[in-house]
Amino acid sequence: MGDKITLNLDPRVLQGKKVKQLRKQGLVPAVVYGAGLEPVNVQAAMNIVDKVIRDAGKHTPVHLVIGDRKEIAMIKDVESDPVKGLTRHVSFHAVNRNEPVIAEVPIHLIGQGESEAEKAGLIVLQAVDRIEVRALPLSLPEALEVSIANLKEAGEQITLGDITLPKDVTLVEHVTGHEEEDEEAPKLTDLVIASVYEPAALEAANDAAAGDATLDDEVEADNGADSDQTSQAEETKPGGKAQDEPKQSNVDANK
User: I need a surface site. Which of 87, 91, 157, 236 has the fewest CB within 10 A?
Assistant: First the structure.
């Protein structure tokens, strides 16, 4: 974990279409909700909210202060103006510091430019840039790191199993219901994170597809075209099944 991220919020009276007045004043309407918690309408200055969004993403807990009340929350949803790109609304999911949550955290490759493969003109391409983990809110890592410095030849790979997880952090494996039928089904730790490619092979793949093929096509082939290890059901996003969420209609009504 990095520095503690704190956001001071003011109670919000304006709701519905009237929140346009807040945006004109440079304020962002938001809502805080969670298990056993009545949704609370709040607001804060847009520049402050935007910084918190950049710093926390959806994988770092935010310490909310609403008057004399304090909550630990994850950013669940950010609504932005499709034209201007301005933040229009933020949903915070309050969590219990003593209950594990599930969050998607970034995967960072370290040692880039230092491997023998890259020095020899080969390309190291990252296939997966984030993965779901389970941990207590205050133990969630900002990112998972894995070194590519030891890669040497085309065809070599870095898998999820090569990542050393922080203490009390586990990977989230989604059950499909077919595991017992297929004992040869790939394990989550076999998921390819990065691979070494010959530049000529990638160029040939593009030429063969009349320019339509991309590096992502090669990456997809490594992990299986119909495999989506980074997707997740809505109920397992930050906050997870263990910490109930309100009906979406109730949240929308509080915008």
Answer: 157
Residue 203 is predicted with a pLDDT of 80
Query: For a pLDDT cut of 70, what percent of the chain falls above it?
Result: 76
pLDDT at 197 > cutoff 60 = yes
Among candidate residues 190, 186, 184, the one with its CA nearest the CA of residue 163: 190
Tell me which DSSP letter residue 63 carries: E
56-91 in b/e form (b: 16+ CB < 10 A) is: bbbbbbbebebeeeebbbbbbebeeeeeeeebbbbb
- Sign of the torsion formed by the C-alpha atoms of 18, 66, 246 and 172: positive
Query: Which domains does the chain possess?
Result: 6-95+243-253 (2.40.240.10), 101-224 (2.170.120.20)
Position 175 confidence tier, pLDDT thresholds 50, 70, 90 = low
